[in-house]
Amino acid sequence: MFILFGDSYEVIIVGSGIAGSALAYHMHPFLDYLIFTDQKSPMRNTSSFSYGHCRVISPEGLEEIVRRSVSQLGEDREKMNFVYMRTHYVTELLDELSIGYIPRSFGVIPSGRRRGGPVILERIQKKIPYIKTDVRLLGFTRDKDRFEVSLRTPDGEKTVKTDKLVIATGGYAGSFDNTDNFRYKNYSIFDMVRMNGGNIINLDCIFTHPFGYDRGRRILIGKDAKKGDFVDKRGRFVFNKKIRSMIKEDRYHEIFHLLLAEADECRARGSQVYFVSGSRREEITPCVHYTSGGIETNYLGEVKGCRNLFAVGECQANGSKNNGRFPGYPFTSAIVYGKELARHLSDSRR
Ligand SMILES: Cc1cc2nc3c(=O)[nH]c(=O)nc-3n(C[C@H](O)[C@H](O)[C@H](O)COP(=O)(O)OP(=O)(O)OC[C@H]3O[C@@H](n4cnc5c(N)ncnc54)[C@H](O)[C@@H]3O)c2cc1C
């Protein structure tokens, strides 16, 4: 469907990954908004590589996950309480979208053969009236209480106005060894934010997954990892006995630092790490799973230093340190913030 640009919107959302799409889905009946992506398809993004693992916490598990997030990841307690008290939004959304799911050690994952990320994203996007593709954010400036937003569209450059601007542009484009899982190549978003008074923080805060392959486009997930062994070139085990039994029981998601350290030792001894399972043999390399540094916001996604500018998803930095977030947090937090921010934006116009 070809939709003309309007001259002005209440809200503009930049990016159609899980963060931008979940927000648009929840805003749909309330606000006059525009959502666009610079890619040719709204499904071309990191979210489509994801397995859709979502961290879902029971009320009994809340205190423990908040405690570990604060002590291990340097997280903000208030923010952790905010997100983890609302993880039931995830299962409610999956139910609304008729997506079946099964429990995993730290939450849920969509059932079925396809990767869970694209399944969730596709169903959400089907409920959004339209997402403009091939439209790139070039810059924005404040004009009194509104933003003037410059876009490159297939028909040339265009300026539109908006009351509120939401950046949902994903992880930043560093140059990462072994990783080619959609780090956006011309990532100029941070300069635009800085020019409008915002800060960029924690860029060294990168969550590295120990079990990447195919240049980080894939990772071994628990149900695969438990079926095989991690060995060096001579077939010797890479991990100690305790870690091996945790992998077999699919309970290794909170000890990535130990997995990375032991795999590094193997490489330092001159061998790659291989995953073997029956006839399958995969070379395993650590990969960037997500980056937790970026645009400094408060825990509601409001950019510090620039009123009415918001950042959600992987581009947002609101506390994670020490190697990032726990696995399954990105999808959960995008869904929680999507709903809460939509509510906040519609309340604030009254
Ligand atoms: C292999 C892999 C598996 C993963 N599995 C999981 C998992 O199971 N569970 C989990 O929680 N997390 C997982 N993650 C992490 C998770 O996928 C990401 O953190 C999350 O998808 C980021 O979503 P996002 O919406 O913030 O960004 P993205 O999905 O990257 O979307 C960003 C959007 O912004 C657009 N954009 C960027 N710049 C511009 C611009 N200048 N103008 C216009 N548009 C722009 C892009 O085109 C895109 O549409 C995985 C990551 C990888 C690599």
Structural summary, described in words:
With 350 residues, the chain is α+β, with helices and mostly antiparallel strands. It folds into two domains: 8-204 and 292-348, 3-Layer(bba) Sandwich (FAD/NAD(P)-binding domain); 206-288, no CATH class. It has ten helices and 17 strands. The chain has helices at residues 18-27, 62-73, 77-84, 88-96, 116-126, 189-195, 222-225, 241-248, 256-268, 329-348; strands at 8-14, 33-36, 54-55, 101-104, 107-110, 136-143, 146-153, 156-167, 200-201, 206-213, 218-219, 229-231, 273-277, 280-291, 294-296, 309-311, 316-317. The strands form four sheets. Strands 1, 2, 6, 7, 8 and 16 form a six-stranded mixed beta sheet that branches. It has a five-stranded antiparallel beta sheet with strand order 11-10-14-13-12. A hairpin with a 2-residue loop joins strand 13 (273-277) and strand 14. Helix 1 packs parallel to helix 10 and helix 2 runs antiparallel to helix 3 (77-84). The longest helix has 20 residues, at 329-348. The model has no long low-confidence stretch (mean pLDDT 92). The structure holds flavin-adenine dinucleotide.
